[in-house]
Amino acid sequence: MNSRIKTILFIAYFLLLKVNLHAQNNELWTVFYNKDSTAVGFKDARQVVQIEPKFNFNIQANYFRNIIAVVEHTQEGKWKSYYLTKAGKKVDQDSLHIFDNGFDCETEGFIRFKDHEQDKTGLFDKNGAVVIPATYNELSRVSNGMLIALKGAEKKQSRDGEHYSWSGGQELLINTNNTVLIENFATNSNLNFFSLQITNAVPIDSTRTSFLGTDGSYYSFIDYDKEFKQWLENDLLNDLTIEKLVDASNETISWETADNWMKTDRQSFITNNFKVLKNNLLEIKKPSTDYFIYNSGLNNFIFNEDSFKKYYNDCGESIDNKYPTLSVVISHGKKKRYTQNNFEFLRTDEGYKLISVTIRNGRLK
Predict the structure, then answer these.
(1) Rounded to an integer, what distance in angstroms lies between the CA atom of residue 282 and that of residue 233?
(2) What backbone torsions phi and psi does residue 61 show, to the nearest 5 degrees?
(3) pLDDT digits (tens, 9 = 90+) for 188-222
(4) φ, ψ at 287 (rounded to 5°)
(5) pLDDT at position 162
């Protein structure tokens, strides 16, 4: 074999090896338990063990994408916590960001960390490098490359001593380079960060909320509540038909019976119950109707089919910053005769889809 052929074969082998390594680094590893379910490790897509079970079973993450928070039992009988990357790098021991008894989960290749001595929050990238120093009271998760940051606030402890809240301070909208995009970003949680538009003037779209940026441009975002209400009243309920409601529904619909929850394919459910569904939905258009809309996330105990997997993150939490559920709650009667009907819609890439129904002033079948 001459030297030229050897060189070509070596280059081909090197490129193949590089492609395989790249694929391994980008594939999801899945959590698995040891025999007595006291520790967890990770397997790759081929079921090859990449990390033997050694982490606390409350690890939070179901999948290992790039970087995760772990708690490991040491030989001294103690626990140590740290962030772990796919390359095996252990990052900042005892700096885990914990909220409501849960560890942070990687989002868009970033994860939050905590400087517990200073009581400040920062951000790691997927390789464990600090991209935002721990100088903020709190940071939101990354959403379309942006975060809400709080600084200069005062921590207020609850009476039970187990919870706290922040008082005062300044909210900012920053990006993952720690550049301040918007100062005094006082807002709610209903904004769709994935709908960002940057313009020279305030958009006329009534579903958008606008802010003046530090660069003099206007940053606007769709407000989920405004968008949903406009779609509901002007599109869905305008000349409502069986076909229209079926098209605006998930493949299966969960509905509450007197005893439990049922799941029925959308065509059968809507065809069999269209009159009851239509009468209740059209109440919304009456000025005298007592109803409200609230924004939340998917319940992973109810909506656990494979078709819903894309709406949960690697820790099994609903991705409600991108795929929120909007529920219409219609109230009837007073006191002992008081009832509420609920229509829950999921925002998908194909639009809002009806996923669950509760009717208490009519009979579903």
Answers:
(1) 9
(2) -80, 135
(3) 779 999 999 999 999 999 999 999 999 999 999 99
(4) -60, -30
(5) 63
